[in-house]
Structure formats: C-alpha cells, structure tokens
Design goal:
The chain has seven helices and 20 strands. With 358 residues, the chain is an alpha+beta fold.
Length: 358
C-alpha cells in the first residue's frame, strides 16, 4: 500500500500530507481541512490534511483515468437478486399497511473483483474518481484514499447531505427518479414531501426555533442518464450545537432511510443482507478554519474492500424508496436505472461517447 499515499480530492482541491485521523466528530469543530467518511452503519473517519491546494494543470482527469482497470462488466453480483428485492418491496408494503412505517429505502450492494496485474500497482480509487469525473460528472463528486484506515471511496453523488457556512446548515434531499421529467409518478412527489418533513424534523433538533425553512420543494434536477426531484431544507444552528450534535440529529440521511426513520432502520436491518458501508453514508469535507463544509449523501458511490481473502473487491450500492404506491417490478427497475450507467463507467465504458477509458 505504500504506493497509495493518503489523499482526498473535492471540487478541484487536492489534499495531502495526512496529519491526523480520528473517529471523533468533535474534531471537525477545531481547526484545519478534514476529509470525512461516515459509513451507513456509523463508522466515522475524519482525516486532517496539512496541504490543500488546487490541482495542478498537469493533474488531469484523463491522465489519472488511464491508470484505472475496472472489473469485467459481467462480473458484478448483487446482495439481493430480483426475486429477493421484489419480495422485500412487498414486505415493506405489508409493513406500511400495518401502520409500522410510511416509507423505506430498500437497497442492495453490488460487488465485483478487481483485476490485479502481477507485480503491478494496487487498484487506485483516485483513478476511478477520474473515470467518474469523465463519464458521470456530479456536483458532489469526491475521492478519499486512506488505505491504512480501510477507506478508499470515489463518489459521483448528486445529493447534498449537509452544507455548512458558519452557523447556517442546509440539506438537499433527493426523492423521485425517472429517465425524463415527464416520467415522474405521483408517488415520487409524495415521497419527496414526506422526506422533506423528516429532514425538517432532524434539523429542527439542532437549529434555532423558527429558523428551519424549505427554500425549494420538488425541483426537477437533470443528471447524466436520469432526472431527480430535489428539495432544499435550511436552518441556523442553535448556540452550542456543533458537528457531533448535527450528525447525531441528521444521520443517517433521511432520503436513504425512510419515515419514521427509526422504524425504517429496523426494517432495513431485517431485509437487507449486506452492510451498506459508505453507500448511503456521508462523504465530503470540512474546512474548520473557514467554518464551511459540504458532505454528500454516499449514493452513486464506489469503494474498494481489501479486507477479505483473494482479490480486492469493488463495491457499489443502489436502491429505491418504497411507499404504498410502489410496484415491485418498477422499484427493481429504478435500482437498475441508477446502477446501469455507473457500472458501465467503472468497467471502462464511457456511455456518453461510446469510447473506452482504459
């Protein structure tokens, strides 16, 4: 792993010179530039870097992407096959009918072995980040490479979990996915409004009374290969509330859990057969010196798992929000839509142009 130095990359900034790594979110209220990764299951890694600068002109996405050799497109396996996933959708609908829950985000984790050449360098998540930047650009894209700490994440996330500017905090939940804007169903808007209410409640636990607002509701936002409904929830942190209190109130993100959150999490634990890891967690940066931050919801996210025997595994998660109005086949199709383009890109095919990135 000595060839893979610790680094992070967000919004044209490259962070190096690792100084500290901690699981204590309170460190984010101290000083310095931090890369942050929080697994859906709650494992937190905050890494402070001493050198943060704009990426040099020679550090191009195309040059870094050339080093990526992804898995075979046919090698991906899923933690829930179609039959199991559709059965899970039916179970969620039964739980809704019983009054246990209103909405549950049901997910599956896809896995493929990475090719490793004899004597060659280990697979580099930063090279995959460059491939994603070329093939699936996203507003909250980023890479965190901390091999010694089991964190190698590349995200092409379109979704804002938490943005901070001083004491103002903002979230941008996404609920509702279609191929085109005229493909949204009534359940998409209902689902979005439901999750907005949940996020308002989450932020209200740590924000000043009366400060939580919804500046945008169900805005249509285009992304490569699909469109989303996106809302904005904003508030002002109350005195004494910092990162530990904010994460305790808002995590895991409401858009990838369900409502009520506690009930949804119990059902997720019953139905899903693999840990989500960085998928549906939080990935991003905190500049404690300037009081600014942007954490994405860890969707459209890949991570390398080197923990098991054999070749390192590349993992990716996909899911859908299940409501009473959900059709099992339609929800499976939504998970396929969300995964199709990204898996092709990670396997070396730029679908927008049809050319390979190897």
């Amino acid at each position: 792993m000595r060839d893979l130095a610790p680094m992070a990359r967000f919004g044209g900034l490259v962070a190096s010179d690792l100084r500290d790594v901690t699981a204590d979110a309170g460190a984010l209220d101290s000083a310095g530039f931090w890369a942050v990764a929080v697994d859906f299951e709650g494992r937190t890694v905050c890494a402070r870097f001493g050198d943060v600068r704009r990426a040099p002109a020679a550090d191009t996405d195309a040059d870094r992407a050339a080093a990526w050799h992804g898995p075979d497109r046919a090698a991906w396996t899923t933690s829930l096959d179609r039959g199991a996933y559709e059965a899970g959708v039916r179970t969620v609908r039964e739980r809704i009918a019983a009054g246990d829950v209103y909405q549950v985000n049901l997910c599956r984790v896809l896995t493929a072995p990475l090719p490793v050449g004899a004597g060659g360098p280990p697979p580099d998540i930063d090279a995959l980040g460059a491939v994603l930047a070329l093939g699936n650009p996203a507003p909250y894209a980023g890479t965190i490479r901390l091999p010694a700490h089991g964190v190698e994440i590349a995200t092409a996330s379109p979704e804002l979990f938490l943005r901070r500017d001083g004491r103002t905090v903002e979230s941008g939940p996404i609920k509702g996915t279609a191929q085109t804007a005229d493909g949204f169903l009534p359940k998409d808007e209902a689902e979005n409004v439901m999750i907005v209410d949940l996020v308002r409640n989450d932020l209200g636990r740590v924000c000043a009374t009366g400060s939580v607002t919804v500046p945008a509701l169900c805005a249509v936002e285009p992304h490569p290969g699909l469109v989303h409904l996106v809302s904005t929830v904003r508030g002002d942190l109350r005195p004494g509330a910092g990162w530990p209190e904010l994460l305790a109130a808002a995590f895991p993100p409401g858009s990838v859990t369900g409502a009520p959150k506690s009930s949804a999490l119990r059902i997720i634990g019953e139905l899903e057969t693999a840990p989500r890891g960085p998928y549906c967690g939080a990935v991003g940066w905190v500049d404690a010196d300037r009081g600014t931050a942007a954490l994405a919801v860890g969707i459209r996210t890949f991570w390398i798992d080197r923990g098991g025997p054999g070749r390192p595994q590349l993992r990716f998660g996909t899911g859908a929000g299940i409501t009473w109005g959900s059709d099992p086949a339609g929800e499976w199709a939504e998970t396929e839509l969300k995964a199709e383009r990204l898996l092709a890109v990670a396997s070396g095919v730029h679908e927008a142009s049809g050319r390979t990135l190897r």
